[in-house]
Design brief:
Layout (H helix, E strand, L loop, with lengths): L1 E8 L7 E5 L10 E2 L2 E3 L6 H13 L2 E14 L5 E13 L9 E5 L14 H8 L5
Parallel strand pairs: 1-6
Antiparallel strand pairs: 1-4, 2-3, 2-7, 5-6
Length: 132
């Protein structure tokens, strides 16, 4: 099972949440997700997320507490274990380095986006105000 970390980045000024859309050339094309990625061998989850946010968005993030952990098996047989962490503080300007689009959205609107299957339950919980 692939170990993956992702960030729920909440903008302090208006409480909007950052979501990212995969490109048409990535696996599961054009799906929306929270930024993050695979944990490398020997890497701690927080260090992996810090690295991924620098690589994908060019920010130095202060990683907060873990807010959710999800195991998901895709129909093709692949499986992921996702650990989601809250991020409320970062330095640098967000620079979209790998996604088709990045967008700040109100939590209530999250379910309107076509998220990765593994994220859908968490998206509903965030939209309902149960998490973050």
């Amino acid at each position: 099972m692939k170990q993956v970390v992702a960030a729920i980045i909440v903008r302090e000024s208006d409480s909007k949440i950052l979501i990212c859309q995969r490109t048409k050339d990535q696996p599961l094309p054009l799906k929306w997700e929270f930024p993050g990625g695979k944990i490398e061998p020997g890497e701690e989850p927080v260090a992996a997320l810090r690295r991924e946010l620098d690589e994908e968005l060019g920010i130095a993030a202060e990683i907060g507490g873990e807010v959710a952990r999800i195991e998901h098996k895709y129909k093709n047989g692949g499986g992921v274990e996702l650990a989601f962490f809250r991020v409320t503080n970062y330095s640098g300007e967000i620079d979209n380095r790998i996604f088709k689009e990045v967008r700040w959205v109100d939590r209530e609107t999250l379910p309107r986006f076509d998220f990765l299957e593994a994220d859908v339950k968490l998206v509903r919980e965030i939209a309902a105000g149960k998490i973050v």
